[in-house]
Task: inverse folding
């Protein structure tokens, strides 16, 4: 082989990786054979003459020395047999003005800019390095060099813009020592020429700070701000100067802070996050709260060390007739007085300082009292009122109108009340809270004193139900109906009850242990210690106890009905319904307490009277037989109840001396057998009598009907005969008229005939008519 082929073989063997040594010899032979064949083919295909323009270059490989050289035009050269053109002709790299390119693995140069060659004449490369080349004459790429970035325009940094740069290796930047990781800004307007030691991180643009606004900045690491102040990493501050602001390399713009506008009716409530001096020169401690009003500024930009508690705090406005109480007010030195109260009355407008609050959360109107109104007040703290009266805690007094009153902070308004107008028939119960005494005020307008209160009089549920009934009278109310009665009652009002006419009502005084009776018609007004006496009367048929409740007792006359079961001497049990007329023997003109006491001695006079009368009736009926009682029941019962006088006459009344009750009459409403068999037999006999009477009436009616029917038939037959006679007579007359007419019609042609013929014809007509 030639020397060139030997060089190719050696280079192919050198390129084999260390791991390829372990491969089989067959694989190495195959690769060497392939490279030889490729080299021979390439050498045969390439032209023998190499022609280069002035801006072209080519790479020539010397197969003898395995060195690749650069052939730069303009040039025409004959290619040797051991030379191989591996690249070209290629255009040189032309970097226009204000452009740059990046060359990877650049050639090394000496101090004069000449390319350095090694001992074999091969150019030396700075492997892994990059070189930035700017405008100049066209240049070729030496073997091993790569154009990583084609010619690119240089970056123009406009005004108010900067490039944030970072050093990726240590280098000297025009006298400034840069260490890997350093960051700095390249501020425009300028043209930035890149360096391989520098990386562009970001493009920063200036932010316009409008008047009245600010930029909130944060330091990423220790730096100095635009004013020369040192900022620690994480520290935040505001840039308030209006205009374009370009943040520093270690500054981050968080946001644009808009101003808070203050007006005459709006303030800002602020709190200090940490100790600092605010924009207005005041020293603020951490946690301190304060207000900003329009007196300090028209707009406020929230500082980074401030926290806005309320950005829209409205003003509190008090009219002339309004007031409010402020808790925890501030003193003149700006210190809060915790726990104290401050009374503020209009006309006035103010802002609530931090910690201050309105008692009750609202504005109150000045209390305007009319002539019949008053306020009950109680002192909560010792003070001296407007009348130079010393008040101690717990004192109670009243302020009576007409007037305007604003309660001081030491005073508690217990209640506002009006004078109570009362008619002659109206009243209230008033209790003295110091002595506990209760009195009744009637018939005048009354205004409660400071030591007085309305007292509620309690009544039993039965009395409440009776008073609530819409139609309460002397007959009382059934117990079943009382549960449906209902209705509210003002328990502070004097309990009144209108006693009906001809009735009496008993009232008991538990304090004096005495009772009084009110005769009707009249009005009862209960004193604080008085209660009504409830009458529990018997009711129903037969009478049962505790069926009727009433407050007033009717004096009569009236009636009551009872059902009594009796048994005759022949053991016939009968049920008798009796009605009694009764009254109380009381003189309506000379009613006295003795009579009043007697009529209420018997609690249930109805039940007592009915039992007494029923006992007498049973005794009298037991001595009589059923037939005798059936014939003389009224007399037997009246004699049993009223008795007979010395002359043997039946008395007119039955007296109860214990309560002066008088039974004046007895009416027997019904008598029915109790035994079912007796009742059935009596019912059967009555039914039979009814049936006999009914059948007799039916037979008589039937006979009359038949007689009237026969008379009608006879009249009808006579009328029919008369009608037939009249019809025959009329028919005869009609036939005679027809014959005469026919004769007259036949007389005209008969004139021409003989008399004999005429006679025959007439005879025929007569015979025909007769037939």
Result:
């Amino acid at each position: 082989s030639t020397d060139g082929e030997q060089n190719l073989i050696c280079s192919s063997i050198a390129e084999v990786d260390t791991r390829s040594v372990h491969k089989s010899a067959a694989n190495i032979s195959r690769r060497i054979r392939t490279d030889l064949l490729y080299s021979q083919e390439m050498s045969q295909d390439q032209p023998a003459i190499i022609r280069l323009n002035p801006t072209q270059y080519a790479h020539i490989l010397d197969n003898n020395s395995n060195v690749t050289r650069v052939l730069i035009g303009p040039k025409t050269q004959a290619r040797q047999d051991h030379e191989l053109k591996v690249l070209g002709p290629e255009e040189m790299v032309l970097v226009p003005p204000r452009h740059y390119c990046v060359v990877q693995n650049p050639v090394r140069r000496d101090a004069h800019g000449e390319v350095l060659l090694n001992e074999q004449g091969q150019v030396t490369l700075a492997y892994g390095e990059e070189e930035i080349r700017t405008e100049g004459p066209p240049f070729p790429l030496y073997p091993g060099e790569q154009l990583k970035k084609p010619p690119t325009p240089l970056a123009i940094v406009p005004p108010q813009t900067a490039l944030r740069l970072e050093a990726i290796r240590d280098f000297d930047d025009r006298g400034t020592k840069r260490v890997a990781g350093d960051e700095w800004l390249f501020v425009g307007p300028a043209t930035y020429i890149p360096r391989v030691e520098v990386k562009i991180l970001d493009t920063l643009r200036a932010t316009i700070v409008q008047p009245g606004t600010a930029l909130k900045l944060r330091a990423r690491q220790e730096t100095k701000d635009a004013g020369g102040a040192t900022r620690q990493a994480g520290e935040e501050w505001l840039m308030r100067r209006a205009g374009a602001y370009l943040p520093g390399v270690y500054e981050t713009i968080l946001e644009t802070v808009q101003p808070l506008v203050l007006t005459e009716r709006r303030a800002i409530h602020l709190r200090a996050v940490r100790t600092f001096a605010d924009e207005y020169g005041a020293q603020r401690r951490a946690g301190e709260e304060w207000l900003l009003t329009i007196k300090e500024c028209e707009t406020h930009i929230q500082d980074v060390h401030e926290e806005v508690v309320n950005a829209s705090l409205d003003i509190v406005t008090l009219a002339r007739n309004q007031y409010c109480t402020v808790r925890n007010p501030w003193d003149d030195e700006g210190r809060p007085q915790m726990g104290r109260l401050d009374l503020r009355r209009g006309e006035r407008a103010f802002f609530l300082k931090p910690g201050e609050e309105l008692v009750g959360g609202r504005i109150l109107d000045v209390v305007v009292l009319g002539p019949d109104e008053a306020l009950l007040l109680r002192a909560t703290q010792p003070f001296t009122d407007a009348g130079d009266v010393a008040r101690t805690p717990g004192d109670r007094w009243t302020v009576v109108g007409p007037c305007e009153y604003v309660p001081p902070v030491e005073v508690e308004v217990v209640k506002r009340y009006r004078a109570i107008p009362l008619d002659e028939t109206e009243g209230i119960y008033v209790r003295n809270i110091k002595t506990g005494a209760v009195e009744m005020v009637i018939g005048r307008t009354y205004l409660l004193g400071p030591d007085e209160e309305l007292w509620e009089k309690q009544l039993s549920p039965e009395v409440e139900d009776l008073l609530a009934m819409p139609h309460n009278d002397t007959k009382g109310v059934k117990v079943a109906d009382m549960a449906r009665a209902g209705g509210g009652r003002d328990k502070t009002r004097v309990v009144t009850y209108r006693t009906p006419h001809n009735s009496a009502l008993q009232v008991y005084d538990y304090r004096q242990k005495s009772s009084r009776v009110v005769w009707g018609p009249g009005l009862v007004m209960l004193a604080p210690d008085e209660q009504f006496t409830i009458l529990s009367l018997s009711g129903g048929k037969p009478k049962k106890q505790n069926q009727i409740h009433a407050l007033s007792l009717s004096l009569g006359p009236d009636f009551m009905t009872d059902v009594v079961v009796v048994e005759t001497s022949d053991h016939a049990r009968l049920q008798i319904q009796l009605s009694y007329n009764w009254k109380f023997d009381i003189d309506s003109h000379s009613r006295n307490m003795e009579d009043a006491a007697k009529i209420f001695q018997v609690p249930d006079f109805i039940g007592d009277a009915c039992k007494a009368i029923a006992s007498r009736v049973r005794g009298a009926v037991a001595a009589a037989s059923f037939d005798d009682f059936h014939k003389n029941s009224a007399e037997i019962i009246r004699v049993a109840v009223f008795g007979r006088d010395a002359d043997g006459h039946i008395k007119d009344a039955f007296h109860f001396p214990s309560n002066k009750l008088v039974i004046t009459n007895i009416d027997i409403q019904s008598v029915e057998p109790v035994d079912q068999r007796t009742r059935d037999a009596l019912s059967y006999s009555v039914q039979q009598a009814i049936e006999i009477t009914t059948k007799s009436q039916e037979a008589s009616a039937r006979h009359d009907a038949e007689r009237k029917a026969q008379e009608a038939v006879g009249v009808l037959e006579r009328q029919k005969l008369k009608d037939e006679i009249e019809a025959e007579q009329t028919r005869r007359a009609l036939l005679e008229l027809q014959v005469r007419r026919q004769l007259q019609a036949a007389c005209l042609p008969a004139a021409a005939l003989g008399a004999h013929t005429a006679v025959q014809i007439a005879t025929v007509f007569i015979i025909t008519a007769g037939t």
